[in-house]
Write a structure and sequence with these properties.
Layout (H helix, E strand, L loop, with lengths): L2 E5 L3 H12 L5 E5 L23 H4 L4 H6 L2 E4 L6 E3 L4 E4 L2 E4 L2 E4 L3 E3 L13 E3 L3 H7 L8 E5 L3 H12 L3 E6 L11 H13 L3 E4 L3 E5 L6 E4 L4 E3 L2 E4 L3 E3 L2 H5 L8 E2 L11 E3 L4 E5 L2 E3 L4 H15 L11 E6 L2 E7 L6 E6 L5 E7 L2 E8 L2 H12 L6 H5 L10
Parallel strand pairs: 1-2, 1-7, 2-3, 7-19, 9-16, 10-11, 10-16, 11-12, 18-20
Antiparallel strand pairs: 4-5, 5-6, 8-17, 13-14, 14-15, 20-21, 22-23, 23-26, 24-25, 25-26
């Protein structure tokens, strides 16, 4: 009987094992996770769950009973200590498991502040998993002073929750503007204004010099010389692919675990999917940090384990919820040369990224119609005339 082992019980791992069973795989399946709970949704962690609007069980992707019913061995609170591709084995301390196919869905890890600048003080938090959020939740008390380090989507989402709960929020971004790495100035301007309307003190072009306190963080010194009293700190300075196991096993790395278009790594019978995996895309190689990618890529890997030989054709899309605004992003804006704004009413707006005459991506704020049409155009490799996009009276549907 064939045995598939999946390391990493997150969105990608859960999607892979479910797809194997749904596709008729009748061998043994083992899903190994380091956390104490079954696979769960991560996006609501720092929003609905943190605000007390979602119970723990509602986070679970599937009820615990699903894994028993489907004959999937779920190993929780289990650390994988090594992989031997030659022996096709996985080490769990003193225990060894053998596989016919191994899938790495190890996800990513948050970047942390160095201990030398106070990064290990109590009260310095990251937002990645359930343990992080459970530890941080009691600190969200009205009037508490929180410093958020990093003006990307992680930091901005944390700021929106804190501000809604009545905390005093300061956000610092070392770059010239928030969202500089991932969005156009127009999108940065939109969200800067949104946060300032909710009382968030956004400081751009300002970094964190150091945190101080006796055991617990109590103050922050910024690169402009200013000092802030703080009750706790949230670090949102990005994530890195979790590649330690793959690297030790000798797998090829390239901004993550390098795979081919079908999800195979450089080692026979070893596959990778989700945040940890980089793969071919339009003549280059990318790694996508998103729920849709984790699901779709993991399902393709499951199909290919069963012999489908399908290429993974990514259709990048993302979202972010901040206050009463839902941002939906279609495509990838890398290398854009111009941005076209389609004006909306109130909070509604969309920004369309072009490389020359080619439409690359769309940022749509409270405008699901613009998002859906933009997504369909990008996937079809069709680029509308920017003049039509810019015209508020033009029917977006006509662009299709």
């Amino acid at each position: 009987m064939r045995h598939v082992i999946v390391i990493g019980a997150g969105q990608a791992g859960a999607s892979c094992v479910a797809k194997l069973r749904a596709g008729g795989f009748d061998g043994s399946i083992t899903l190994i996770g380091a956390e104490a709970v079954p696979p769960y949704q991560r996006p609501p962690l720092s929003k609905a769950y943190l605000m007390g609007e979602m119970a723990l069980e509602r986070l679970f992707l599937r009820p615990l009973s699903f894994y028993d019913e489907q004959g999937i061995t779920l190993r929780l609170e289990t650390q994988v200590t090594g992989i031997d591709p030659a022996a096709q084995s996985v080490s769990l301390g003193d225990e060894t498991l053998y596989y016919d196919d191994l899938v790495l869905t190890t996800g990513s890890v948050p970047r942390r502040l160095p201990a030398a600048i106070g990064g290990t003080l109590e009260g310095v938090c990251v937002v990645r998993d359930l343990v992080d959020v459970d530890a941080m939740a009691p600190r969200f008390v009205k009037g508490a002073r929180v410093l958020i380090v990093g003006g990307g989507y992680i930091g901005l989402e944390a700021a929106s929750v804190a501000a809604k709960l009545g905390l005093k929020v300061t956000l610092v971004e070392m770059a010239e503007r928030i969202l500089q790495r991932v969005a156009a100035p127009q999108t940065s301007d939109y969200f800067r204004a949104l946060h300032r309307e909710h009382g968030v003190d956004i400081r751009e072009g300002v970094g964190l010099e150091r945190l101080s306190g006796e055991g617990h963080v109590h103050a922050a010194r910024l690169s402009d010389g200013s000092e802030l009293p703080v009750d706790f700190v949230i670090v949102g300075v990005g994530i890195a692919p979790a590649t330690a196991l793959a690297e030790t096993a000798g797998l090829a790395l390239d901004n993550g675990i390098a795979t081919d278009s079908k999800g195979r790594t450089s080692a026979p019978h070893v596959w990778a999917a989700g945040d940890c995996a980089s793969f071919p895309y339009r003549g280059g190689r990318i790694r996508l940090e998103s729920v849709p990618n984790a699901i779709e890529q993991a399902e393709i890997v499951a199909e290919n384990i069963m012999g489908a030989e399908k290429d993974y054709e990514a259709k990048p899309w993302f979202w972010s919820d901040q206050y009463d605004v839902k941002l939906q992003i279609a495509g990838l804006n890398s290398g854009y040369t111009s941005v076209v704004e389609r004006p909306g009413i109130g909070r509604t707006a969309s920004f369309w990224y072009y490389l020359g005459e080619e439409l690359l991506a769309v940022d749509a704020m409270n405008d699901p119609r613009a998002y859906m049409i933009g997504k369909r155009l990008i996937e079809a490799r069709r680029s509308p005339d920017p003049a039509m996009v810019r015209d508020p009276d033009a029917d977006l549907k006509a662009l299709l």
